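Hi, here's the filled form for the chain we discussed.

Project: internal
Contact: R.S.
Residues: 126
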Amino acid sequence: MIETYQRLLQQWASLAPNECSTTERDYRFKVKVLPEVEKCSFDNPWRSVTSENSAWRLHVAEDVVLRQLNFVLLTVLHRCSVRQTNINFTFSSQGTIATICNGLKSQIHPHPALAALDAYVQLLNF
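And the returned structure, exactly as it came back:
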């Protein structure tokens, strides 16, 4: 999961550097905070997200990674709504698949945020 999350964040950062960017560490990224997603008192706010130990943190339900994944999920949902793009989720015991634009499907992922990010990266590539 860590490698997948890191790869998706790196792709997001390279395809939309105004939305997400890399930092000096391979596993840390900055995601632009949208006022519609999260309140922030800065003029140009960015939130740091990390892929380090995310599988373990998710397994033990550590609050930090859950907040980060929820932030990524809400940000992607908002980015899709701005583009007037539908996003749908299919849940199963194996994980979640996200579909954007009735055709761009994510791989199956353990968390909806990863599925949404996977499908969103495909949309950015399109």
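Let me know if anything looks off before we file it.
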